[in-house]
Write a structure and sequence with these properties.
single chain, Maltoporin, Chain A, six-stranded mixed beta sheet, 917 residues
């Protein structure tokens, strides 16, 4: 431990971080406004009084005085629109109106002042910088106009997919579960696997900052993106919203015409029974300038049937409530916090073309979320921020009544790819997460350059995880053409685990010259995972260096060249160690079914045991295990071409290393030759393929599953981006981007592949490094390798007839790569599904989609606006596999080979009404 502490101190000294001691930290919620005041000759003006005001600035007007270098600074202001006033005796007063400041940015506004003997002033309106020339990070801002006006699904975790280069929640070559999803700075993703856990109302979000490319040391625990959503606050003005929208079932089209007739005959189009949502919210002052509130309520009801599903409907009922308080108890102190409660109640979960109604599950899931924060501006150069937040909840997954955990046992047919009889699993998953965090920010002028903004931080996270799962009836049958041939006998498991993470970081924004800024930083995580009987079983202490530069090319704050290198580690996730709690894990037995009548846990005369895994004493974690990470390289340029519009070009490279995966050090496999049964999955037919090498288990019952870092595990991502952004002004706004990318490796990007999960083709206990059959042909394009991504998002305010808004989202996404797999039978371990073709041998058709919104707004009563809107989704009614969600095609040989697993939603219309004030 002494060596680790010494290493941290050396690292801090190496980036020049001399100053106050470490304090606590978390994702940035505020912004910085700074600049230099000069006279008409360009000489700096000390002693200028600069004042900012805004209806969103609790505590009233804030004032700063320029220092000896003529610099003023407001270090912690909330996102919003501001008015700035600069005053100095004998000089003309300068006012800047309409300054728009987004979350997490440093906005530089220089102020020239002219000498005047009179009491004069000059006012500049509507000029707000759009380029952050102090940061080497290329962040994406999703402001309220974008969020509220675009025709989107309005599912809050999906907003990250509006970001250039992010599709299917896969960001820049990461996995679907490698993102940090933050609400007011609190990570609300699952501490067990990283997927979204808490779902907030879309209307409660003021804006979102998506951080990844060039993210500084404040941000950690992700290898995809960190998306920080800012919850709306009250203000000195009362404001509110009522919204109701509905998607009538008769407004849903059929887009299955492109399917072959034989498939379409059994592939039912999507259907809507009921789909509506209602929101009410109100915010305003309790005490003007001192105490504000914001509160909201939502109720969502959705009864739908996905395309290809021939059974009943999937139903969701979701009530949600939130309240947030902002308080200014003193001129230098700000307090805020929120409390949210909801229930995610679903029946028919898992419905798909291969999952009929009896194989779906029900999921009633209650939870609460909270956060509290205190910000203390100690003086004009020192800021302290303290937070505590987290959530508590659970979700059960139970067989759909009248079926139960007790049985009957589920079946899966390897010839048809279909499930039957009962749900293939049951479970209950409990989560509690709490994070204490803070930052201390210190500004130092005239020290090793012009100035420094030092940030020192500490975070402590504690998460409790309890998982329970098993097979209904304690067994699961693999069939072939309706006849069972392999049975998996398992009475399930219960695991308890606790994650503890302590993080320290130091970050500097070092203004070397007026035009050059360096962003050195370092972050250290101390990760510890424990289970009840064994205590700490997982331990890593990764150190993440970051270094970047931002060059203000012309010194006019309109063009910046950025370059950045950073190392980013995955979060500490329960999947990495919870398996070590074996006290309530039962043996997993593979048996051959010899005759009708099935198997019992004692086997019986109809079954013979092929293999057995005893969890106790057969799990281990490499004592030298390292935490998985990505090394990220960014170089780019951004230019403000005209007012409120910037164009960005950048190259991105990301190398994913030290994947955490299971290997089996006890089993011995013998290579054998077996014939590919062809696309029909039947040997002895004309489509049979060549013989290939597969692996036969020669010593059943001797598996030892060790979690380690396989040397040959890798994934590589390269991309080039062109991004144009126009903030809303002059009646229009847009985000436009083109991303060319390539993602290749033997570790796929599907859910769980950042945390020793990911299913049979992932990094789990029977994955590609634990079972050599799963490793066959795994090197190739990942499932979410989209070569071309085009996104056009925008709104135009048409001034005719009193005004109406026309908004749209266009996206073009290259189809997902895939390749055929087949089930090889007749092995001593029963069967194995192997990859016949590497991913990338084939590609699905591209998604070429247009969504539109037309909204008529009617002002009334002085402060009220009514909006009536129609959304049209999938305007051209394209019928194609939905490769933006997950593996979209049935790729295993058999009677359903090549059929859709996920189908894009057909053309539909949503009618909505909202009143705002």
């Amino acid at each position: 431990m002494k060596l680790r502490i010494a290493s941290v101190l050396v690292a801090l000294a190496a980036v020049g971080m001399v100053g106050p001691p470490l304090a606590w930290a978390q994702a940035r919620q505020t912004s910085t406004l700074t600049g230099t005041v000069t006279d008409s000759t360009g000489a700096v003006l000390p002693g200028v009084t600069v004042t900012i005001t805004s209806p969103n600035l609790i505590g009233g007007a804030q004032t700063a005085v320029t220092d000896s270098e003529g610099i003023y600074r407001f270090p912690a202001i909330s996102p919003g629109t501001y008015e700035l006033t600069a005053e100095l005796a004998s000089f003309r007063t300068v006012r800047r109106e309409g300054l728009r400041i987004a979350v997490g940015n440093t906005i530089t506004v220089d102020i020239p002042m002219d000498v005047s003997t009179l009491s004069e002033s000059v006012t500049v309106t509507g000029e707000s910088p759009v380029v952050d020339v102090k940061s080497s990070a290329a962040n994406t801002q999703l402001d309220s106009e974008i969020l509220q006006n675009l025709p989107t699904a309005r599912f809050q975790p999906d907003v990250i997919n509006l970001t250039p280069g992010v599709t299917g929640s896969v960001a820049f070559g990461g996995s679907q579960s490698s993102n940090a999803l933050l609400m007011d700075g609190v990570d609300v993703s699952d501490p067990e696997g990283g997927s979204p856990w808490s779902f907030f109302n879309y209307n409660w979000i003021q804006e979102v900052q998506v951080v990844s490319l060039g993210a500084n040391a404040e941000y950690g625990e992700f290898t995809g993106v960190a998306a920080n959503s800012i919850i709306k606050s009250g203000s000195n003005n009362f404001s509110g919203l009522f919204e109701y929208w509905r998607v009538p079932g008769s407004w849903l089209s059929d887009n299955t015409q492109s399917l072959p007739e034989d498939i379409r005959a059994d592939f039912e189009p999507a259907e809507i029974n009921t789909n509506w949502d209602s929101t009410m919210q109100l915010g305003g002052p309790i005490l003007r300038d001192k105490l504000w509130f914001f509160t909201g309520f939502q109720y969502l009801k959705e009864i739908t049937r996905p395309a290809g599903f021939t059974g009943g409907f999937e139903t969701e009922r979701s009530p949600r409530f939130l309240t947030k308080i902002n308080w200014a108890p003193a001129a230098s102190v700000r307090v805020e916090g929120f409390f949210e409660a909801d229930k995610f109640d679903v029946t028919g979960r898992g419905a798909s073309p291969t999952r009929p109604p009896e194989t779906t599950v029900i999921e009633p899931s209650p939870e609460v979320n909270w956060n509290g924060r205190v910000t203390w501006t100690i003086n004009s150069k020192t800021l302290f921020d303290l937070r505590n937040g987290g959530y508590d909840g659970y979700f059960p997954l139970e067989p759909t009544p009248p079926l139960t955990r007790e049985g009957p046992a589920p079946h899966f047919d390897s010839l048809t790819g279909e499930y039957s009889v009962n749900a293939p699993y049951y479970g209950r998953f409990d989560r509690t997460r709490n994070v204490m965090a803070a930052t201390l920010t210190r500004y130092a002028d005239n020290f090793a350059g012009k100035s420094h903004e030092f940030k020192f931080g500490f975070e402590f996270e504690r998460s409790k995880i309890r998982n329970e799962s098993g097979y209904p009836g304690d067994r699961y049958y693999y069939d072939y053409g309706g006849e069972p041939y392999v049975a998996y006998l398992w009475e399930g498991y219960v695991t308890d685990a606790v994650s503890k993470r302590a993080s320290v970081y130091a970050q500097d924004t070092w203004t070397v010259t007026d035009r050059l800024t360096l962003n050195p930083g370092v972050r250290l995580n101390l990760n510890r995972g424990s289970v009840p009987a064994l205590g700490n079983v997982f331990s890593t202490s990764p150190l993440a260096p970051r270094i970047g530069l931002a060059w203000d090319v012309a010194g006019d704050h309109k063009t910046v060249v950025r370059a950045h290198y950073g190392r980013y580690y995955d979060a500490l996730l329960g999947q990495m160690y919870e398996f070590m709690d074996t006290s309530q894990q039962h043996p997993n037995i593979t048996a051959a079914v010899l005759a009708a009548g099935g198997c019992a846990n004692g086997l019986g005369p109809n079954c013979v045991e092929l293999d057995r895994f005893e969890p106790e004493n057969n799990f281990g974690i490499d004592p030298d295990i390292k935490h998985s990470f990505v090394d990220q390289y960014l170089i780019g340029v951004e230019r403000e071409l005209f007012t409120d519009f910037s164009l960005q070009l950048q190259y991105i490279r990301r190398n994913f290393e030290d994947f955490v995966a299971f290997v089996d050090t006890g089993s011995i496999y013998q290579p054998v030759q077996r014939q590919d049964p062809g696309p029909d999955n039947r040997l002895g037919t004309p489509d049979d393929g060549e013989f290939l090498t597969v692996f036969n288990l020669t010593n059943p019952g001797n598996a030892f599953r060790l979690l380690t870092n396989p040397e040959d595990a890798f994934r590589r991502y390269n991309a080039f981006q062109v991004v144009g952004r126009k903030r809303f002004s002059n009646n229009w706004q847009t985000n436009a981007s083109y991303t060319w990318s390539r993602t290749r490796g033997n570790v796929n990007s599907e859910l769980g592949n950042n945390a020793a999960g990911g299913g049979a083709e992932g990094l789990g206990q029977t994955g590609i490094f634990a079972n050599p059959n799963e490793g066959i042909n795994q090197v190739g394009r990942t499932t979410f390798d989209f070569t071309h991504q085009v996104k056009l998002e925008g709104t135009y305010r048409v001034p005719w007839l009193g005004g109406f808004n026309l908004s749209g989202v266009y996206r073009y996404t290259t189809g997902s790569p895939w390749g055929r797999r087949a089930t090889i039978r007749g092995l001593d371990q029963g069967q194995a599904t192997v990859r016949i073709e590497p991913r990338g041998t084939r590609r699905l058709d591209a998604i070429n989609n247009v969504d539109l919104r037309l909204e008529k707004t009617i002002p009334f009563g002085g402060h009220y606006t009514a909006g009536f809107y129609i959304d049209m989704f999938n305007v051209n009614n394209q019928g194609v596999h939905n490769s933006e969600i997950e593996r979209a095609i049935l790729d295993v040989s058999g009677t359903t080979f090549g059929e859709p697993r996920r189908w894009i939603a057909p053309r539909s219309y949503r009618a909505g009404f909202r009143i705002t004030f």
